[in-house]
Amino acid sequence: MALKHKTPMLDELEKGPWPSFVTDIKRVAERKPMAEDLLGLLEMSYEHKEGHWKHGGIVGVFGYGGGVIGRYCDRPDLFPNVAHFHTMRVNQPASKFYTTEVLRKLCDIWEEKGSGLTNMHGSTGDIILLGTTTDQLEPIFYELTHDLGMDLGGSGSNMRTPSCCVGKARCEWSCIDTQDITYDITMRYQDELHRPMFPYKFKFKTSGCPNDCVAAIARADCSIIGTWRDKIRIDQEAVRAYVGGELVPNGGAHGTEKRALDIQKEVIDLCPTKCMEWDGKNLKIWDEDCTRCMHCINVMPRALRPGLDTGATILVGAKAPILEGAQLGSVVIPFIKMEPPYEEFHEFVEKMWDWWMEEGKNRERLGETIQRLGMKAFLEATELQPDPRMVNTPRYNPYIFYDPAEVPGGWSHDPKAYRERHHA
After folding, report:
1. Where are the alpha helices (DSSP H) in 290-333?
2. CATH class of the 163-227+313-390 domain in this structure
3. Per-residue pLDDT tens for 210-263?
4. Residue 255: is it exposed, middle or buried by C-beta count within 10 angstroms (0-12/13-18/19+)?
5. CB neighbours (10 Å) of residue 244?
6. Is 128 strand, coil or helix?
7. How crowded is residue 188: how many other Cβ atoms within 10 Å of its Cβ?
8. Higher confidence at residue 414 or residue 354?
9. Of 189, 344, 405, 407, which one has the fewest beta carbons inside 10 Å?
10. Which of 328, 359, 333 is nearest to 346 (CA)?
């Protein structure tokens, strides 16, 4: 079927080696006029080097302040089928587990009442349903809630849809129940999710272990990262098997051929705190120096496992660059058990929000408010005690001067030498 809009510039995007969104839209455009007009509008935007969407007013479903992103075309005379092109965010299940039945019903709803275009998933995690008209918003919402038991996600200056990694459902490293934590946050903070009340957006992301597969530390205003506070469990026989070439390193991620692991080069020398030693027979870990980076565990998964006293580290303030540039999360609670009913965590969250809503400027993320007013003000408001683990780069303070000769026992940046003195 020939499309009515000529799209020479978009056609160029189909020529590369990677799958193209243009090809996907063209496929849908063969049966959906809304997708066909979207192609024409995009081509005009590329030609004019400006977007052709206008704000046009607030749209949504009754009782909700978020979940629908209003979108109107500024040239409805040329592209009438995208005069309205609203996006709906749907709250995804924790860890994005679906049955095929639910996916089929979801697609059937959107095929009938929307453009047929979806994004599985947006960067926050939501199911993104791209393009429908104002009169279809309430019918779609009714079917989502009544037929599928699903709800809209967050948009605007509210709590965005919480997201998490696969957690204990399929990952042996997960130290916390990421699905239960995400469900608890979602259900407890319904008002904050659906009714914008914050200075700007707020994201919770939960990772079951320090590998942080949802990149919470880089993207979430509040990151919940599974960890442990006892010793890494070691199977010395398995360590020797890796060194002897009897096991495949890295869990087979870099090839499934068995090979002798150079434990000094591939594990010990890459440890950020140099907390490991290998004497040719046994691996020694100085757990008090370990920062739980997971590298050694990832390289030798049959030999090393997280400890049994598990919980979470809470970080705040991460964001992508908008106003003040990209920021990583800062540790504020080094360890919390994170077990139901999560009351200790909720007390912290509510103090944090109270302070941010009082002190935050319009369109200022939590991390930017902390950056502007200082971590000291944040810790006082949330009644947290300062801790050395909250410092961005411990041991690198340029305002401390000393003469090594005057330090009792001398001073060394060599962790092994330090341990020999203090762990003798």
Report:
1. 295-299
2. alpha beta
3. 999 999 999 999 999 999 999 999 999 999 999 999 999 999 888 888 999 999
4. exposed
5. 11
6. strand
7. 14
8. 354
9. 405
10. 333
